Amino acid sequence: MEILHLMIEKASSEGLLTPLAASGLHHRTSIYADDVVTFLRPTVLDFKVFSVIVQDFGAASGLCTNMDKCSANLIRYSSADEAVVAHELRCPVVPFPL
What we know:
Helix content: 40-55%
Shape: globular
Largest sheet: 2 strands, antiparallel
Number of strands: 4
Strand order of the largest sheet: 1-2
């Protein structure tokens, strides 16, 4: 799972993922056992990059993501953001906090 974290951090440092904040907030991924929480901006490009990372990680490790068991939990969002998330990630969008 550490490799997944490193892949996400590499994409972030290469500018492939939108920064989370202008300053201070740099932690994107938390991992506990086989559970992963990743923070992304609600942009189509971020979701596409993240999807490629997850697919590549699954192909290399054999640890594939079941999107039916995933959820998107939105924080400070608009209805347009919610529509983008639901369409791009194709997983349930549920209220935050869990």
